[in-house]
Amino acid sequence: MICRLIFSTLILLLSGWSAFASGTGDDWPTTQIVPAGPVVMGADNQDVAAGRDEVPTRQVVIKSDIAFGTTPVTRGQFAAFVHATNHEIAWGCWTLTPDGWAMDGTANWQAPGFAQSDQHPVTCVSRDDAMAYLAWLSTMTGQVHRLPTEAEWVRAAGPSALDRPSEALCAHGNVNDLTAKNKVAKVAEHCDDGFLHTSPVASFAANEFGLFDMIGNVWEWVADCHNGGYADLPMDGTAQTHENCETYALRGHSWTDPPGPVRLGTRYNLPPHARQSIVGFRVVRELPHE
Fold first, then answer.
1. CATH number for the domain formed by residue range(s) 32-285
2. According to the UniProt entry, where is the signal peptide (predicted)?
3. 3 state SS of 269
4. What are the pLDDT digits (tens) for 237-256?
C-alpha cells in the first residue's frame, strides 16, 4: 500500500513537472464562438475618415463558425511558450522613450519600455514570433491554432465595427485618454482609465461576442498581406496573400490612439519581422468540420 502511494505521488510530481515544462491548459488562450455570417470589408468612397487601403467595399461571407481568442495573447501565455521551447527573440523594439518613439535596443517582450504583469497583452513580438507560438500551441493542444484572417477579425469585431461613439470607446478599450495625455498624444478623450500604457486584458467591457480588447490596448497581427486595398480580397473570408508579401495587416488600434480618430475599419501594416510595443496578436482555433 505504501509503495503504491509513493508511486502515485511520483507520477503526480512528474506530471506536474511535465506540465510546467511544456505549458498547461491554464497557459493556453481561451476562445469564444463567433457565428458564421456576412461581413462588409472596407469603407465607402465618401467616408472622409477612411484610409486609401480601406477601399473598395467588399461583401464577404464567413461560411463557418470561428473559435476566436477571448483576449489577445498575454505575456504569461507567451512566456510559457518561450520557457518550453527556448524560442529566441532578438533584443530591440520600437517603443516610447523619453526622447519619443524610437528603436530601443534594450527592449523586448519582457521589457517593452514600461511595466507589465503576466495578465497584460504580450508586445514587442513580430509576426514571425506569433507564428512560432501558434505552431507550438497547435502541437501542445492537438488542435490547429492560427492567426485570424482580416475578414474573420472584422466579423469578430461585431456590428459595432461600424464605429463606436467616443464614450463607448472609453468603455470598451484602452486608448489614449487623460491618463496618457501629453505623454502619448496631445489629443485625448475626456475619460480616465488609469492606464498610461497597456492594461491587463479584459479590463474593459466585452463586445457582442464576448471578446475583449477588440479596440485599443494592442494592434493585432492578422493572416493577410497588406495589399493596399481590398480589390483582390477573397469572398470566402480566407486570407489575402501572395508570394513575397513585404508587409502584413494589423487591426484594432492600441493604447496610443486618441479615441476621436479610432475606427475599427482602420488598418495598420508592418513587415513580418518588426517588433513594436503597441503590437500583439490573438489566436483562432480551427473547429472540426461536420
1. 3.90.1580.10
2. 1-21
3. strand
4. 999 998 889 999 999 999 98
